[in-house]
Amino acid sequence: MTATKQPQYKRVLLKLSGEALGGNTGIGISPESVHNMAEQIFEVRELGVEVVVVVGGGNIFRGVSGSERGIERATGDYMGMLATVINALALQDALEKLGAPTRVQSAITMSQIAEPFIRRRAERHLEKKRVVIFGGGTGNPYFSTDTAAALRANEIGAEVILKATKVDGIYDSDPKKNPAAKRFSEITYLDALQRQLKVMDSTAFSLCMDNKMPIIVFDFFRPHNLRRVILGEKVGTLVTN
Asked: Nearest-CA neighbor of 215 among 137, 175, 159?
């Protein structure tokens, strides 16, 4: 029975896409979707696990697509970073309604609504069992929130990056287009790169590979899946050496 199992990790970083907060359409903020996410995070926090979250902003604005429509790329990226802070506040609200103390830290200074990112302060919050949500990406244009996740995970000493997706792991081809696509239970960084499996963008992936930061890609939308990953069940795909 899972009730007797112990968490396999003490400190984890959960990477959420912005689209996940948008529900079925992936656009805007779905209070129901945010509540469901918060419940899963709250569930693992109750196991004693220290959780940090990096959230994307694609449900509101994505810098790359903005630049394709004529917005200057750096400006578009800053707009996307602001979108991630909106999402961070929505997730904070949902978590605190469940009774989980949280802090939002932003890589872009906006002191009225979020703390600036300070590594030691983030670690102190975790020691006090607060959930820390990182908004604002890395604070720099041309870097994705995947890169922010890889950077923050290494900075705050997370043991693993848990990349929340709508599929149950990494496949050798798109399972929506190819019914015979094969799912990997485990794959090495080099194999994933050689197969061009696009686990994360190249900058984020290189940062994880260089620092031996394991990544678990899993279906976050199956109830209790985050808890199952934390308890060491074979969920999703593990990317490691």
From this structure: 159
